[in-house]
Amino acid sequence: MITGGMMARAVEPGHGEAQGEGHSACLNCGANVDGHYCANCGQAAHVHRSFAAIGHDLAHGVLHFEGKIWTTLPELALRPGTLTRRYIQGERAKFVSPFALFLFSAFLMYAIFSLTSHHGPTDAVQGVKMDAGAQAELRKEQDKADAHIREIEAKLKAPGISTARKEALTENLTDAQAERKGLTLAGDLTDSLVGEGVNGGIAKTVGKAVSAAAENPEFAYYKLKANAYKFSWSLILISLPFLWLLFPFSRRFKMYDHAIYVTYSIAFMSLLFSLSMLLTAVHVTSGLVTLALLLFAAWHMYRQFKDAYALSRTGTLLRLPLLYGFACVSLSLFFTFLVMMG
Asked: The whole model's pTM is what?
């Protein structure tokens, strides 16, 4: 979380943090300073060198304690469309930029996800052991199923069996063969993806990923989580073309406007998902709480979409099903991309 805050801080430098006026040379660039900031490079005239200043700088770096985070979060939660429109139209110094907030929310979500789950590289060896035991058990069941099939086939070949007996044995054989196929479903799925006639492309990549996940599900889960954190920015790029399709060839909105909308939206959903994980960790989540979070997420998308693009209620409701659908498609493409990245 601290790393995310510091990176967000690097993306968006502070405003209004000087603690005193300077009337000498800037310690950063050497220019003359008259006021709280250097007019040449923007560095604060007063620079802390006390031990207590470490906590001050850390607080600023993590959560922008000068007030911007507390101005941005209520707007993002309750008036997301207004926040988006105000930022696009130029009110930027008073708010955390969408990309800085996105970075912070992504790191925060990853940190909470790591703390509240029990998966990681150290579990990989245990995962292999468990998987080996499961494979041995599966082979035992397959051997039993094969033996059962051979037994039924031998009975069918016996001379002098009645028609009714033959029909009953045939039905039992069909059931046994179906059970045997069910035991090899995962292998059949992988073979169908990388089998004959499919020697490259997406199918082969996904097939290998499925095979690797079947061999070591714990490590595959860890890799998926790590890739989701590293490539979270790609969800913004995936979403932009779909949002453009809601206003094709419109001169009112530029791609920059769509990018600000998408980034603020994803940042909020990441924060909401982090809250959901925390509630689950402390055993607060119930059916009603989950439903409330889902309904709030749906309302948030509606409110941000309507206000950010200054749409009428009718125009919003007509586009809303497409917006929800495009969000699902974007997430599906994002997770497919994560699987392909291995």
From this structure: 0.60
